[in-house]
Amino acid sequence: MSLLREAEKCIANQTRFLELNAVITPLQSQAGWLQRVRDADARRENGTQKSALDGRIIAIKDNICTRSLPTTCASAMLEKFSSPFDATVISALEESGAIIGSKTNLDEFGMGSHSTNSRFGEVKSSFCGNSGEPLSAGGSSGGSAVAVATGQCYAALGTDTGGSVRLPAAYTGTVGFKPSYGRVSRWGVVAYANSLDTVGIIGQKTSVVREVFGVLNHHDPRDPTSLPTNSRSRISALLSQSQFSNRLASRPLRIGVPLEYNLTELTPSLRKAWLSALKALEKQGHSLHPVSLSSTRHALPAYYILAPAEASSNLAKYDGIRYGTRAAGPDSGEGLNGYLYAKTRGEGFGAEVKRRILLGSFSLSADAMDNYFIQAQRIRRLVQSDFDKVFAFNNPLRTGASGDKDGVSRVDVVIGPTTSSTPPSLSSIQNDSDAMASLNAYVTDVLTVPASLAGLPAISVPVSTTKTDTNPGVDKVGIQIIGQYGDDDLVLDVGEALEQAEITV
């Protein structure tokens, strides 16, 4: 298929699936995109392609800054914002010849697990439940996942703070990859929680995700959290050692099965799909080994202290004076004794964003800092330590890290479910009270948050499942592969191996 026909098909699908509300700003609003596709087609014919992405349409989550299209973060606070620059990931994609497509819908400022907290309305999955009711697309990158699942783009960028790429991928039957923290630049990405935010990639296949990652995986001097060039070289040197080089082809893998991920809340269909995936990899010659990640049971509460704390600091600048849209009319009070921007922040932020700002402000207060924020940071270190203990490859960021742990045999990757259940219906989410809906949404991240706290690479790959306890339209669930820091290529390799495995359910 020519690139032009592929692009036309993407446009047709944007119109066809308009009711799913995956897109905030459509591709057609960008000037000159059609000619760029034609130019890429010409380069493809004469063998001068810029990259594997040349002429491909990449959708962008609407919290990543683009100069040619508005950036709203799905918030009233930024509805009039136009970025004067492109994020680094946008510039990298355009240099590779990719076409920046639609800006996709999300939970406001990336805060949510179902893509229902958007000023532009909820995102609906292309899967349907009983009586044809729409299901959750996951969050917060639900728009990006649905755009990929319905063929509105070749691939899409999202952001993953605690699972916001992997969860939507699991709910929509797509592949969602969160690279190691610092591998991909965050410069130009509207911050939620700086120490956790990671630009992630969603595609129909792991091979597509790998192509996009290859374009984005570079040091960016403008991003202080970007992994430096010398650290990248050091990681490559450690991975080139004989026991780690080309592991999937040279020897069977040792696959860790995390005992703590076998939750009592795990639905039978998901547990069966997990076991089927493990058996399929075992048939390929790999060995399975139970591992304990004991601190992960504390990861979720720690995350929901740390992330809101960072969010409350990051969102403080949106006051309608320096950043953000100012509310019409005077603020509360009059004269010098009035509040300068209370009305602006009250009207500009949605309920969930305000909830997290309050949570974060409390945990950073002088009275609560030691009991909440500091304790959560300690738990984060314990979660990192648990992962370091089970992986054969030493964490290259730790002092003295050098390959294998003195010959002690550990696992190469850890494999578990991405979610504890199949996607809920949107009606069930809407019927919950505000407090209960938020609590249920927070619990949804229980299996994705540990890798985020530790900054590890993780990918969710769709695996076929039975329909005994699931919605009739859902025939795939997400299985998550987690690797040691910097071991992103192995995680992608195992993702491809799982796609190619003969899985019977």
UniProtKB/TrEMBL annotation:
It is found in: Mitochondrion. Pfam families: Amidase. The active site is at residues 61, 140, 164. Its EC number is 6.3.5.7. It catalyses: L-glutamyl-tRNA(Gln) + L-glutamine + ATP + H2O = L-glutaminyl-tRNA(Gln) + L-glutamate + ADP + phosphate + H(+). Keywords: ATP-binding, Ligase, Mitochondrion, Nucleotide-binding, Protein biosynthesis. Residues 20-492 form the Amidase domain. Its main location: mitochondrion. This is Glutamyl-tRNA(Gln) amidotransferase subunit A, mitochondrial. It comes from Talaromyces proteolyticus.
